[in-house]
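dumping these here so i dont lose them again. two proteins, back to back, each one seq then structure tokens. dont judge the mess
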Amino acid sequence: MPDATPDALTNGLLPIASQFVRQGQVTQIQPLGNGNINDTFLVRVDAARTDTCFVLQRLNTQVFPCPQQVMHNIHIYTEHVRQRLVHSPPAESRRWEIPRVLLTQTGQNGWLSPEGSFWRALSFIPQALTVETLQTREQAQEVGFGLGMFHTLISDLPPEQLADTLVGFHIAPRYLQQYETVLAALPETAEAQYCYTFIAARQAQIGVLEQAKQRGKLPLRSIHGDPKVNNILFDKATRQAISLVDLDTIKPGLVHYDIGDCLRSGCNLLGEETDRWQTVRFELDLCESMLQGYCAIANAFLTPADYAYLYDAIWLLPYELGLRFFTDYLAGDVYFKTTYAKHNLARALVQFKLVESIEAQESAIRAIIQALCKG
């Protein structure tokens, strides 16, 4: 790990990180990850000649206006899973880790800066790595197992115990309403017109999962909310999945949101930031491996109706995210972090191309799901 620059240690971060240090002193701070919402840093502490690390995050209160509800959900989740692991530990050959919330020197689960920013600290899981893009079917199967393990451990956690920290999150018909609100005269570019036409041609299908929930086909459960591939931690030695992190979006919802989002991020080898959106493809072999890994453990609680709507989840989540990116582009980039003009437009194009690839392979995807259901 490189030493923190003087700016990193003095430009507001050192006093913030020190709020969560009870012994020793901060020696290094560096950015961690590339999330679109929160600001995340890895902090190293020299405590009694022993180096320790923790994760420091500034919670985006525009996205999470009630940070204490976020912390409540993380506490409920971690305590529930710890008890589950005590009574039903994973196989001896497997490791499963849960981040701990670190308290401030005054015993609080977060720190509010004078300018109103909410900061919190989580334990750092050692000997772990993440991947941005899956390279093998074995990795894909481990990602599926990781999500299945997460869902299995909270399958008996009543969703009513969790606060809804993001009201409307993954409720696709609401995103369509937001889109229609900001839709005005479109910029006269071929890309924007493509997005407009793409959305219009498929908007009648956007309520498929919510309608199934309303009809009682799909139950409300406790979910992660954002299980992208780079939120899965792998053991450095065994290359097995050992944790699912970034827990801010834990809330009541449909497991199909998680499944669809995980496959969306894992089965696109070019990634959601590629500038080669015309060549984006949904990788069928990775889809099969991820679903195999997931269903191998999650089959214990999945119902026939859950399987019946898996394809719809795989199709809907990239469509939903593309819609959100395009809406943010039209609104002036007010939600997602951007680094250049038309960044959110470029992201939307990637997701819509992924949807096209999924649609072209619908029969094959449904055949994979059918085989897993029978298995």
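---- next one ----
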Amino acid sequence: MDLASLLLTWYDQNGRSLPWRGSRDPYIIWVSEIIFQQTRIEQGTGYFLRFADRFPTLDSLAGGEEDEVLRLWQGLGYYSRARNLLFTARYIHEHLGGKFPEDFDSMKKLKGIGDYTASCIASICFRQTHAAVDGNVYRVLSRLFADSMSIDTQAGKLHFKKLAQQLISRDRPGDFNEALMDLGATVCKPRSPSCSICPVNSWCQANEKKIQMKFPVKAPTREKSGSVINYLLINAENHIVINKRSGKGIWKGLYELPMIPGELAPVDLAAECLELYGLKVNSLTEIRRVKHLLTHTELDIRFYSAQTNAVNNRTDNNLLSVPIGKIEQYPFAKPLVDFLSSLQEK
């Protein structure tokens, strides 16, 4: 029996039961794949269910507001995924008659949809033979063939994509892709692979040589740089001052407390707050400091409490004065979600 047949036989009996499994709706598969690009199944399933409940169709998402989409995404990180979902849903609604394209190359032209996501949609929804290669699949393939090609280089990604394309089932391409993902998630795990129950262990060169833990191979990582950012918790008359981010950046479109970058003393933070936001503050006291890891940097985030005179519902420079009890209606990045939630618990 060839590898694809072995794998599919195992998948029919052991495939994971997931809320989107069995759907052939490209919108549902698209949303699920975007959510789980940078998110574990355990963490993201609740987000998927809430998102699909609020926006069950592409047209419903196209009619959604960015603030609500970001609020549903709050805590998942990589917020450009949510913004791209909304942008592309609106594009399909307005320019493609609300119909998701079936052509693989047309899918890849849509904002936020790359080779992996297009391969998932094309194979699962339209039975097209496009191999979808994610982290689980890289690990399975590298072990099966004891392949030392680095999985996190462009050359390595192309190499494993080609290898998966050679193996994919022509009859059940979508099931094959999901089977490889499930095998990596439940059997061929990073630290404790269950080789004895693996349906394709007779094919696995790493298992034969007992060198499973040497794979997959990754290129040397570069050291993360660091940045200091300061958030000012300005509380006046039971209101908190917040600001909507604009411009570029991963947190674009989210709300935040007034933010000032750099290693600065409280007196300098007060001066910068007046300069940047036109808001005079005093009595700055550091109340919390946290580390937050991003892809290529580590943020040193410092929270300060600050006093000011009463502020209006809307101040200059796009600042908002929001009642503390309504703060959860606004989408924030995870460090701020955690911080603001801890304040409400007191």
